[in-house]
Each structure stands twice: as C-alpha cells, then as structure tokens.
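Reviewer comment 2.1 asked that we show a complete input and output for one of the modelled complexes. We chose the guanosine-5'-triphosphate case, as it is the one discussed in the main text.
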Amino acid sequence: FLSKFTSYFGSSINIDEVSKQFHEQLISKNVAPQTARQILDRIKNQLKGKSVTLANFKKALVDELTKTLSPNVSTDLLYDIKAKANRGRPYVISVVGVNGVGKSTNLAKLAYWFLQNDLDVLICACDTFRSGAVEQLKVHVNNLKALNANMNSNAKIDIFEKGYGGGDHVVATAKAAIQYGATEKFDVILIDTAGRTHSNAKLMAPLKKFGDAANPDKIIMVGEALVGTDSVEQATNFNNAFGNKRNLDFFIISKVDTVGDLMGTMINMVMATNVPILFMGTGQTYTDIKRLNVKTIVDNLMR
Amino acid sequence: MVLADLGNRLKGALSSVSSGSDDEIAALLKDISNALIENDVNFKLVFRLKENIRQKIDTDSFKSDTVANKRKKLQKAVYDELVALVDAYEEPPQIKKLSASSTTAKGKKKLVKKRESHVIMFVGLQGAGKTTSCTKLAVYYKKRGYKVGLVCADTFRAGAFDQLKQNAIKANIPYYGSYLETDPVKVSAEGVAKFKAERFDIVIVDTSGRHKQEESLFSEMVQISEAILPNQTVMVMDGSIGQAAEEQAKAFKEASDFGSIILTKMDGHAKGGGAISAIAATKTPIIFIGTGEHVADFELFKPSSFISKLLGIGDLQSLMDH
Ligand SMILES: Nc1nc2c(ncn2[C@@H]2O[C@H](COP(=O)(O)OP(=O)(O)OP(=O)(O)O)[C@@H](O)[C@H]2O)c(=O)[nH]1
Ligand SMILES: Nc1nc2c(ncn2[C@@H]2O[C@H](COP(=O)(O)OP(=O)(O)OP(=O)(O)O)[C@@H](O)[C@H]2O)c(=O)[nH]1
Ligand SMILES: [Mg+2]
Ligand SMILES: [Mg+2]
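Response of the prediction step:
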C-alpha cells in the first residue's frame, strides 16, 4: 500500500490527501469509518501547522494505534485475585456480550488458565436461556477436570447450575453460586451469561440487575474480531449497561484467528470505551488465549 | 427495522436532490457511497455501484429532463443498483414432497422416478447461528406440511448435540445425533440414511463452525459433504460481520459450493453490509434472514422488497414498470 507514496517519502505532503488514503487503509482492515476518522483527526491536530513528511505522518499513526491498544490500567488479573484473597468471598468474574461471540468458550479458557495457576474455580451457569448452554459448560468442566487430573494439580474445578429459567432465575442462580463458592472456599467464580443484542433494551436492562446483585470484581465483555462497524455500538452499549457507577473492566477479543490481518475491531471497541483488552482468543482449544502483542497488531493494521 | 440507519441515510440523500444539478448529483453519490461504506459494504463494490449510477444518468435525455423526472430516474437507478447488490438472480431449489411422487395424468397413474429426501447441509463460521437457523428452517418447512428431520453432525463443540436436541424437542421435530461418536462424517451419514429410509421429505444437517485459516476443518466439511451428498448447502452468515466476510465467504464457496445464504442477527442494528459484500462476491442468493433468537424470528428474503423497505418507497418496482 505504501509503495504509492515512496516517491515522495521525505518531502512534505498534503495532509488531507494522505489522511484520506490512510482512512481507506484502516477501513479495509475493519476499522469503523467513524473510528478511523477520529484517529486521523487526532493526528491532523498534532501535525497542524508543521511541515509533515509521509514518514512523520506514518509514525504518528503507529504511535496513536499503539497508544490505543496499550492498556492504561493493570491487566495483571492473577495479582489482583491474590491481593483480594482474604475477603471471605471468592473473586467473581462475569463475561457478557452479544450472541455467539465466544463468551462460554473463553470463560472455559480462563478457567483453564486459573487452574494452571493453582486457583480453585467454580463455573456458574447463568445463561439460563439458550438451549444447551448449561450442558455446554458441563462438558467444559468435565474436560477441565480430566486435564487437571493429568496435570497433577491440587486446584479444583466445579460447576454451579440451577437449570434453565427466565425472570429472576439468573440473579438467584448467581447469588446462590457466590454463597456456595464462599462456603466451599473457591478462589474464583466465573459466571457465564446469555448472549444478547446490544440494541435491545428489553435484553440489556437485566444486565444492570445482574451486575448489582452479583457485584462482580471484573466484568469482561467478549467481542469478536469478525464483527464490523457494529462493534463500536456493541462496546458502547455494553459499557453503559451497568449503570453510571459501573463500567466494563476488560475486553477479550475472540476469533482473532479467523480474520487474518483485519484486526480493526480491537481498535473500534477500545476507542469507543477506553476499556483495555485483557486477552485475545485465537482458537477453539483451552490454550488459545493470548496476551496482546501490540506491535504485531499495529504492524498488521499498517501493512 | 433491519438496516434502519442505512435506510434513513439513503432516503435523506435522495430527498436532498432538488434541482438535479451536477453538483447535487455528485453530493448524492458521495452520500450514498459513504453510507454504504459505513455499513461495512466493501469499497470496490461501492465504487462500482457509484460508477453504474453515474453511467445510467449520463444521457442527454436525463440532462434535459424535468427536475421531477430526474429525481424519479435517480431514485430508480439507486434502487436498481442496490437490488443488484443483494440479488444473485437465482432461485433456491423448490422442494417437492415425497408423498406426491406419483401423480396422475389424464386419469392414468403416471410412474415418476422414485424421489429421495432433499438433504440440506448447513455450513458457516463459528457462532454464526447455524444450529439456531437449522431449527428455524425445519419449523418453516414443517408448517408447510413437509416431514423434516434434523441431524447433528457437530461432534466438536461442547454441548452441540444438547443444543440441537433441546431446540428440536421444543419444536417437535425428529432429530438424530450421538453423544459418543466423535466422527462427524459417520454421524451425518447415519442420520441422513436413517431419515431417508423413513421417507422424510427434508433432512437438515447441522455442522460445526469452521474458518478458512484452519485447513483440517475445511477438509472435514468436504468429507461430510461427500458422505451425505446434499441437494442444497446453506451458508449461515452473521449480519454484523465486517471486512472479513468476503474472504471467508469465497473460501467456503470454493470448498463447499454453497447455493444459498441465511443472514442472521438482523434484529437490532446489524448493518448487513459485510454480508452484502460476501453475497456479491459469491453470487449466491440470501434465502432467509434471522431476526432474533426465537424460532419464529425468521423471514423469507426478497431482494426487491428488502431494498424497497430499506428506502421506504413501497414497491417501487411495480410503480416503475407501469
Ligand atoms: N476460531 C475461533 N472460534 C472461537 C473462538 N472463541 C470461541 N469460538 C467458537 O465460537 C463459537 C461460539 O462460542 P460460544 O462460546 O458458544 O459463544 P457464546 O458467546 O457463549 O454464545 P451464546 O452463549 O450462544 O451467546 C463456538 O463454536 C466456539 O468454539 C476463537 O477464539 N477462535
Ligand atoms: N439476536 C439473534 N441471535 C441469534 C440469531 N440467530 C442465532 N442467534 C444466537 O446466536 C448464538 C449462536 O447461535 P448458534 O446457532 O449456536 O450458532 P452456530 O453457528 O451453530 O455456532 P457454532 O456451532 O458454535 O459454530 C446463540 O446465542 C443464538 O441464540 C438471530 O437471528 N438473532
Ligand atoms: Mg454461551
Ligand atoms: Mg452450532
């Protein structure tokens, strides 16, 4: 893409013209147009009045993308869990997100990671709506029990479920799980929730109730790398779903293995909310959960 | 409404044409292009659409026409190009009931070749909505008097069989699957054979989610397809998919030769533009759209009425044809 410009690399450029080209570039990488515009406007502001070369412009863009993806709060979850270990209450983490993005699967990956770090994990089935959701988690817990036995680990894993149901069933299940988890001295409770359409108020409203009742230490939104411009609104609406005192804590961006270098969704969701990315999901097995390599992602976006 | 935002922007752009001057037309084309791009439609497609419209109105008769006629012609050009974007100009197969396989002609019983069950295989990316849409399609045909069976050939995803089974039981549709067998080729072949032997009109086969980057998953899909020889393969695509849609759809097309698309999650504000790009790239018709998680949230897709609705212009086609 950049070869078009190399001829006037080094000489000063028309910022608007170049900005337009990068706008197209970012969109082709699945960055939402409005997000791309936001980023480029920032750069234009920074460079205003200066004599700018293509190299300057490109560096400013790389820096901006890098800054966007670099978390400004600690993402050391294990540390936080250990620091809060003696409260007489397990550390509660909940995953939320739209339908089919990979909430339950990435919750199971988190469970595997915690087990490897010697933490006792209770998985709570609070998707009490979608067919097979409870059984899906049971299969994961059984798999993880077997893996755990093979690892000779002392950590334990179990499931807490009260079957399917509507209305207050979700809140009741979550509360009972936390109680049970405290009595049985689990370190971490991972609560799965049902997928929901982010623009459907009827489905989003119960999230607030759930958040108030379960009061999770961390709320993680799973978003998928495949989704296009809708990712902006998805992130915004979920970030606003828990009332004005509570936000999302982290994203997990799933299915990164399915998009090649079209990694723009990450930029969209972070720019829209300022919520950092904890992990990315890179496949369908328990080990397919990775820390972000910001440089690689930015290189992909710029390529 | 589906794609409400895109619809509003297109409507807005069209209604801002007042004199039909070149400047106005340029602005209109720009507005339409931006609206489409912001709804995930691929750049190249948008560019082509813009050029096509430009060409259509680049005639002397257009230039000398009255403002009212210009507006009408512009609207028609935009409408036609949008329909062209989502229309593959191909009909999905009409499925015949097996019970009707011997017909009487002129009082005499005519022997018709013994028909077999119509087998539909579902394919798609992870989490697109395959399992959900399988049941929706089964219920759609069941309501129309077909005898439909569901086969779960997803032996990979945790809880996949339970999901299909619970959906099937709720909808009162016979199903087949296994908790023990891990080979999807074997389960699908057994399930299809069973329902064929029982003379079901339609057998719908659900498969695991997969993506083009993982070759083994694609070859598994080809093996299932070779084992059950589907009459129709349906790709299920999430309506909110972005720029990755085109590449994935092309790869699925090549490997599975799907003949129809079901677009899901079109409730809410799903943009559908990524999927539209995939449709244009594969020239494959959308047959249904999914508009929610419940079985009834399922609509037949017709390109012309979809675009008419989008533009809020009633049935423009019939208006123009007069
Ligand atoms: N390729 C790939 N597939 C993934 C990844 N994460 C999840 N999946 C797959 O995506 C599909 C959906 O995953 P689930 O975990 O059931 O998604 P969910 O968000 O819990 O879905 P609902 O509860 O129905 O809303 C499954 O087939 C998973 O195996 C990932 O990182 N990469
Ligand atoms: N809002 C909405 N949700 C849908 C629609 N279709 C499916 N879903 C939801 O999307 C999620 C994933 O659907 P599935 O049918 O499990 O998807 P799948 O393609 O079978 O997933 P894998 O088998 O894991 O690849 C579930 O939570 C469904 O309820 C739809 O049209 N609208
Ligand atoms: Mg789930
Ligand atoms: Mg499925």
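The pocket of guanosine-5'-triphosphate (ligand 1) is lined by residues A 97, 99-106, 127, 130, 133, 195, 254-255, 257-258, 281-284, 288; B 126-127, 157, 209, 211 (CB under 6 Å). We note this here for comparison with the apo prediction described in Section 3.2.
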